[in-house]
Amino acid sequence: MKKSVFRSVIIALSVSAMVSVNAYADTAVSSDNSAAATVSQVGPTAAPSYEEMMSYIASINGVNSNMDMSSINAAATSPAEAMATGQKMSSVNGMSVTYQMATGETVVLDGMTIASWVTGNEGNVVTVDQNQVAAYVQGLKGMFDANGVQTWNSADGTAKSLATSYGYYIDLAGETAALMANIQSLQSVVRPPVYAATAAQGAMPQWGNTFVEVDISSQHAYYYQDGICVWESPIVSGTATNPERATPTGLFTVNYKTTDRVLRGPIGKNGKPTYESHVDYWMPFNGGIGLHDANWRSAFGGNIYVSNGSHGCINLPHDRAQALYGLIDKGTVVVVCE
Questions:
Q1: For 267-276, how does the pLDDT look when each residue is reduced to its tens digit (9 = 90+)?
Q2: Distances (CA, A) of 1 to 5, 6, 15, 57, 94
Q3: Contact (CB, 8 A) for 16 and 32
Q4: 153: DSSP letter
Q5: Up-side HSE of residue 20: CA atoms within 13 Å toward CB?
Q6: Does residue 40 carry a pLDDT above 50?
Q7: What is the Cα Rg of the chain in Å?
């Protein structure tokens, strides 16, 4: 605020000085401090034109004088209003746009950069090079969009990643339009960018800190509650050597949960389900694929899944399934990764 006030004072004094210099004769004071001797007497001259004053104001503010002054004059109701409008428009480099990113970071678009995008005006509205604005927004996307990968640290101490479209993505067209409107308002703003897609949080993993992790390669599952691992278990996932039974990786959510359920396979040639399995705890998250107990198994983990895995579900020991059932609910995120 102090900087803006100071600049306004300088502009006012500078314009006043221009008028004074042009309106009075040049004089000089002799070296012996005697009375001033007139060097030349040219008499009062015409005050600088409005266009000259606006050009001078623009030069002070560091903006090329490409404003259409006749357009500003035509849109104004008085010379004073035209002067005020022109001065405000020529000082666009005094504004800024501060972005509050989902990651918690702050990005400041400074006024000198904004001023370099201004191409002129239409009446009392500045015109802006949309291509340069869009290029800036594209740069923000490159820096802050999720870029199709989510990362986190697993409870087993390894760094994990998942290819997924989930995450924050800036809306190129929407943010370009919003930024152009901000510039044309000539007002500094603080705001988040316009997003095409949002997530549970800005930090990785962007789906949040409460989720089930199913690690196919280690044949282990974990449940994180507010970032703390509160449950874990060995598992048996889908049969790896059979593409039709392998468990797909991806980001899912629990559809619902129920107890005392009979799971049935596809109908075979004999008109009956290819399998029927009773489970006490059923927690589906990807169509017919879910987490459940598997009392018919005597062992879990290791390499069982390679050739003797499930039909795609995540088999759990009975007590571990029971414990997980009491912790999660509909909507809980399930991450299946390698």
A1: 888 989 888 9
A2: 6, 9, 21, 19, 10
A3: no
A4: E
A5: 7
A6: no
A7: 35
Sheet harboring 314-316: ordered strands across?
258-264, 276-286, 289-293, 314-316
d(CA 186, CA 89): 7
- Model confidence at 190, pLDDT cuts 50, 70, 90, reads very high
Query: Cα–Cα distance between 86 and 6 in angstroms, integer?
Result: 18
Name the strand (E) or helix (H) holding 223.
Answer: strand 220-225
Question: 312 with 246: CB under 8 angstroms?
Answer: yes
Q: What does the alpha-carbon distance between residue 109 and residue 97 come to, in Å, rounded to a whole number? A: 5
Strand 195-197 versus strand 125-128 pairing type: unpaired
Residue ranges per structural domain of the chain: 2-63, 93-197, 211-337
In this predicted structure, what is the pLDDT of residue 51?
53
The CATH number of 211-337 is 2.40.440.10
Question: How far is residue 211's CA from residue 229's CA, in Å, rounded to a whole number?
Answer: 9
For residues 311 and 240, the answer to whether their CB atoms sit within 8 Å is no
Domain 93-197: CATH class, spelled out? alpha beta
Tell me which H or E stretch contains 253.
Answer: strand 250-253
Contact status, residue 135 vs residue 150, Cβ threshold 8 Å: no
Residue with tokens 């030349």: 40
Report the range of poorest mean pLDDT among 115-124, 164-173, 225-234: 115-124
How many CB atoms are closer than 10 A to CB 283?
26
pLDDT in tens, 130-156: 999 999 999 999 999 998 999 999 999
Structure tokens, 175: 């943010």
Write the single-letter amino acid at 47. Answer: A
Strands 125-128 and 189-191: unpaired
Cα dist from 150 to 145, 163, 252, whole Å: 11, 7, 14
Q: Rounded CA gap, 205 and 57, in Å?
A: 50
List, in order, residues 6 or more apart from 331 with CB less than 8 Å away: 253, 254
Q: Is the pLDDT of residue 226 over 60?
A: yes
